[in-house]
Amino acid sequence: MSIGVAVPAKNVRPIMVAKAGGFDLAVIVPTFNEADNVAKIVAGLDAALAGIRYEILFVDDWSQDGTAERIAALASGRADIRVVRRFGRRGLSSAVIEGMMATMAPVVAVIDGDGQHDERLLPRLFALVNGGAADVAIGSRYCENGSTGDWDSFRLKCSRAATKLSQLVLQAPVTDPMSGFFAVRRTKVEALLPRLSGRGFKILFDLLTSSPQPLRVVELPFRFRTRVAGDSKLGAGVAIDYAVTIADRLIRRFAPPRPVMFAAVGTLGLGVHVAVLRGMMAFDGASFARAQIMAVLVAIAFNFLFNNSLTFRDRRLTGLRMVAGLASFYLLCGIGALANVGTGVVLFSEHHRWWVSGVAGAVIGSVWNFGASALVTWRKR
Ligand SMILES: Nc1nc2c(ncn2[C@@H]2O[C@H](COP(=O)(O)OP(=O)(O)OP(=O)(O)O)[C@@H](O)[C@H]2O)c(=O)[nH]1
Ligand SMILES: [Mg+2]
User: Fold this and answer.
1) Cβ-contact 2, 30 below 8 angstroms
2) Between 20 and 30 A from 94 (CA), which of 66, 337, 346, 350?
3) Same domain as 203, residue 126
4) Are residue 322 and residue 224 in the same domain, yes or no?
């Protein structure tokens, strides 16, 4: 297994030990319970990639069927096979991203660990990216001469529907945006990293829809093989994750600018405020003061949650940071309310026009809330 130094073993090919990290291509192989498949994958890649300086990087999510042990045996005495093992983690997309970031090779490719992708296509995918003809080169099941192989009609229909749906958010037509078989320049992925969702199964789709400029894509056909050993990890969760990703991208694309979104959330928050106030007074018999205090607290929390998920989704707070963020948002909105009342009172004492004073106070308060929360609660990190 590679530790970054030359290993003088019999079966090490000389080209691989010339320089630690001197690979032109890293083939990322995500695995989860693929023990009976990994040897074939390595043999297939070795045969297909002769003449290219490549390393094979497995990312295994703590498989319990001995996958990592089999990989270790294959890697023994070879500097060009490594495994990244993740404990307590699952997720194909995140596994692939972490694999890509664990190599210094300028071009990274992804191939399934169950033998369904035709590794003989890899040299051409590599050449397209390495030579600069494409940002991403995809092995496609749906372009001319491509094939999904022996899928039953239900799976075919689901895959076709998902592919059609994806066109809603793709910037340029791609026949197989859900392919798990592609090559890409590593620095491209690095640049897109902060924008990737990293969720779910479809890392290629994530990459294509995260780029502000359309990526230059070339697709080459291949025939999807039937899984021989091991079990499929496709399930209902994958479909749900996919739907969430599409919704996420639609919101990202059509979301109005931040201040407009903040104002829209604030307007909804006003509705929540009135509903809580009315509810507490009508059903709980609370005094106006108590109901108003409760309504303010709930409305601020509502605004915080929605702004966190929508307005500042790119700086979204989670876990403990979310709790601290809510506290700071309460504080800032409190100051905003004082600014609101203060402005109103001063204007009213000068002009005696109640509605001008009221609206001016509200505008000042809202502008403060937006500006201060952008700088403090959802500050750039
Ligand atoms: N590291 C890691 N790998 C995963 C995970 N889920 C799936 N994989 C691997 O990703 C590849 C694709 O998963 P598959 O279950 O084969 O998905 P598929 O090819 O779309 O479906 P089938 O045609 O039914 O095999 C395989 O090599 C899996 O072992 C995961 O959570 N973590
Ligand atoms: Mg598979």
Assistant:
1) no
2) 66
3) yes
4) no
Q: Separation of 132 CA from ligand 1 center, angstroms?
A: 29
Q: 230 in ligand 1 pocket by Cβ < 6 Å?
A: no
Residues 199 and 50 in one domain: yes
Length reported for the chain = 381
Residue 6 lies in a domain: no
Coil vs helix vs strand at 232:
coil
Give the residue from 231, 254, 277 where a domain finishes.
254
CATH code, domain carrying 58: 3.90.550.10
Do 287 and 176 reside in the same domain of the chain? no
Walk across the sheet containing 107-110 and list its strands: 81-85, 54-60, 25-31, 107-110, 182-185, 136-140, 217-221
Please tell me the residue having the least CA distance from ligand 1 atom 27. Answer: 113
Do 213 and 85 lie in a common domain?
A: yes
What's the domain count of the chain?
2
Range of the domain at 196: 14-254
Same domain (yes/no): 271, 245: no
226 and 133 assigned to the same domain: yes
199 lines ligand 1 (CB under 6 A): no
Q: Which of 210, 235, 254 delimits the end of a domain?
A: 254
Cβ–Cβ under 8 Å, residues 19 and 47:
no
- Mapped onto helix, strand or coil, the DSSP state of residue 220 is strand
114 lines ligand 1 (CB under 6 A): yes
Protein residue with its CA nearest to atom 28 in ligand 1: 31
- Please report whether residue 9 resides in a domain: no
DSSP-based helix, strand, coil % in the chain, nearest 5: 55, 10, 35
167 Cβ inside 6 Å of ligand 1: no
Does the C-beta of 92 come closer than 6 Å to ligand 1? yes
Quote the CA–CA distance of 56 and 43 in Å, as a whole number: 11
